[in-house]
């Protein structure tokens, strides 16, 4: 799910010289949008940093860059300070434009900023299968398990079959299958590395992994024995 466009803050990572060019464009874009004393107030009346101050920040940075070309060490330090002030002022302005634009990319561009394009919200975890059913299929030793309705957001499914004396519990992404005094921990994760918690201390466990996608499961890795502390 895409986020609504915002004013990108990528300009903060630009080199100082590029910042001054970007800043000049923002100032030029904002100037006609800011109402004069005789004009009716609008959304741009409440800019967190007035255009005149943005202009000063841009000028200060340009002057600091010019002075640094002489090789003066204090001038080089002045560039760093000017960059910090510039980033803060134009960053506040970008966030304000994002707020008043309410996702309208044209409004963001009109103010001289660049709308974001690829920011995405994290995908929500899928919910439970609402019509799960398990039954025999007529063949010896075989069952059919599943749901008629796909779970929204799911790309693969994990099924478990256990005898009556086994207890299955779930802790986060981990399925714990307990038979007697011993448990099996099965964790599903979207990352290539995970952490298992609450394993019995001092008891050797054999750990392995396999990958899964919409096409099915890949082969399991060779197990590695670990003794939790």
Give the helices and strands, then pairings.
Layout (H helix, E strand, L loop, with lengths): L15 H15 L20 H18 L4 H29 L3 H6 L21 E5 L6 E5 L18 E6 L2 E6 L2 E6 L17 E3 L4 E2 L2 E2 L6 E3 L3
Helix pairs in contact: 1-2, 2-3
- Major beta sheet, strand line-up: 3-4-5
Query: Distance N terminus to C terminus?
Result: 41 Å
Number of strands: 9
Rounded Rg: 30 Å
Task: Please state the structural category.
Answer: alpha+beta
Shape: elongated
What's the structural domain tally?
3
Order of helices and strands: HHHHEEEEEEEEE
How does this structure look, described?
Helix 1 (16-30) runs antiparallel to helix 2 (51-68) and helix 2 (51-68) packs antiparallel against helix 3 (73-101). With 229 residues, this protein is α+β, with helices and mostly antiparallel strands. The relative contact order is 0.11. It folds into 3 domains: 10-110, no CATH class; 124-152, no CATH class; 155-226, no CATH class. The protein has helices at residues 16-30, 51-68, 73-101, 105-110; strands at 132-136, 143-147, 166-171, 174-179, 182-187, 205-207, 212-213, 216-217, 224-226. The protein starts with 15 loop residues before the first helix and ends with a strand. Helices cover 30% and strands 17% of the residues. A hairpin with a 2-residue loop joins strand 4 (174-179) and strand 5 (182-187). The protein has 4 helices and 9 strands. The strands form 4 sheets. Strands 3-4-5 form a 3-stranded antiparallel beta sheet, with no helix packed on it. It has a two-stranded antiparallel ribbon with strand order 1-2. The chain has a two-stranded antiparallel ribbon with strand order 6-9.
